[in-house]
Amino acid sequence: MNRTYITGLLPDELCRELGLVQKFRGTQIFKWIGNGAVSFEQMTNLSKDERAVLSEKASLRSSCVSQVLKDPDGTIKLQVTLRDGRAVETVLLTDKEGRKTACVSCQAGCAMKCAFCQTGQLGLARNLEPEEIVEQFLFLEAECGKLDNIVFMGMGEPLMNLPAIRKAITVLTHKDGRNLSSRRITLSTSGVIKGIYDLADNGPLIRLAVSLTTADEELRSQIMPVNRTNPLPELRTAIAYYAEKTGKRVTLEAALMAGKNTGKESAERMIQFAQGIDVNINLIPWNSVEGLPFTEPSAAEVRNFTDILKNAGLNVTLRTKRGRTIGGACGQLGKTLVDSVQKSGL
């Protein structure tokens, strides 16, 4: 008998998939899932017989946590094994105010091949299903307590799996379930222009971040192949459209690499790109990835680059380095998976 995985289903879909005659039962089950239930046995407002029947039909988890890694700075990374044996990573980030953010993956691997990113070296295995995305959030809540935010900044390019992300967001924000506010959700893209317009026109209404890294057309095409088919002038137009259409300020992210994109000319190009559109700039000193031909920038490089942008009147944030000892920092996801394969001799 094929079991149905139900974590990515809405109340009416639960009724249909589980053959529930009474609609309120779908809402009850949905609420239990949003509260973190992992089995029907926990659903005490269902009869014992109902729980037994449902347990035969369906499962509340399609994946499982196969590894938990903890950094001294408080960052926690989970390796999640999917039902087909593939694995992804999801990370808990905690800021200075104690707010907890889930950084979730949307794909097993990634096809974007950004030269400075560990995940980009893995290649793309497949898109994740909605329940596999929702489960990452629930796994982190089970490990760390109630979370405040979710960012689609883990493994994969979110705008290449937008239908599943839309469904996962619908589940997580539903008033009868987890009821997470859409204002607490951010999606980060490498710059898929078609997807930016799709998100702006068709929702959901969430925050957008764009991994810009450099506003040098030639350099960006070298280190971010997505730029070859999504050039900077058209990307800038799409970002401006998103900000105007949604009324939400867009974040431009830049991974700073020593001697690559930290000079005065790089800063001036970024200023030119950013001026006139409603953006914040989030600077991220590159986190070292073994085998990649880049170097972490010096404190002086980062400071000078930051000062040039600020002096031009831009809103700039320097991201704190966190999760580096467990391969949980920006650009490092997938390291644990690579290490596991190497240790197994595969």
From TrEMBL:
Catalytic activity: adenosine(37) in tRNA + 2 reduced [2Fe-2S]-[ferredoxin] + 2 S-adenosyl-L-methionine = 2-methyladenosine(37) in tRNA + 5'-deoxyadenosine + L-methionine + 2 oxidized [2Fe-2S]-[ferredoxin] + S-adenosyl-L-homocysteine; adenosine(2503) in 23S rRNA + 2 reduced [2Fe-2S]-[ferredoxin] + 2 S-adenosyl-L-methionine = 2-methyladenosine(2503) in 23S rRNA + 5'-deoxyadenosine + L-methionine + 2 oxidized [2Fe-2S]-[ferredoxin] + S-adenosyl-L-homocysteine
CDD domains: Radical_SAM
SUPFAM superfamilies the record matches: Radical SAM enzymes (SSF102114)
Cofactor(s) demanded: [4Fe-4S] cluster
EC number(s) given by UniProt: 2.1.1.192
Cofactor note: Binds 1 [4Fe-4S] cluster. The cluster is coordinated with 3 cysteines and an exchangeable S-adenosyl-L-methionine.
Pfam families xref list: Radical_SAM, RlmN_N
Residue intervals of the Radical SAM core domain: 96-329
Active site, renumbered: 89, 330
Keywords: 4Fe-4S, Cytoplasm, Disulfide bond, Iron, Iron-sulfur, Metal-binding, Methyltransferase, rRNA processing, S-adenosyl-L-methionine, Transferase, tRNA processing
Cell location: Cytoplasm
Alphabetized GO MF terms: 4 iron, 4 sulfur cluster binding; metal ion binding; rRNA (adenine(2503)-C2-)-methyltransferase activity; rRNA binding; tRNA (adenine(37)-C2)-methyltransferase activity; tRNA binding
Ligand binding ([4Fe-4S] cluster): 110, 114, 117
Cross-referenced Gene3D superfamilies: 1.10.150.530, Aldolase class I
Broad class of enzyme this protein falls into: transferase
Residue numbers binding S-adenosyl-L-methionine: 156-157, 188, 211-213, 287
GO biological process, alphabetically ordered: rRNA base methylation; tRNA methylation
GO cellular component: cytoplasm
Other observations noted: Reaction proceeds by a ping-pong mechanism involving intermediate methylation of a conserved cysteine residue.
Entry's family note: Belongs to the radical SAM superfamily. RlmN family.
Its biological purpose: Specifically methylates position 2 of adenine 2503 in 23S rRNA and position 2 of adenine 37 in tRNAs.
PANTHER family: 23S RRNA METHYLTRANSFERASE, RADICAL SAM CORE DOMAIN-CONTAINING PROTEIN
Record-given protein name: Probable dual-specificity RNA methyltransferase RlmN
Originating species: Treponema porcinum
Organism classification: Bacteria, Pseudomonadati, Spirochaetota, Spirochaetia, Spirochaetales
Gene name of the encoded protein: rlmN
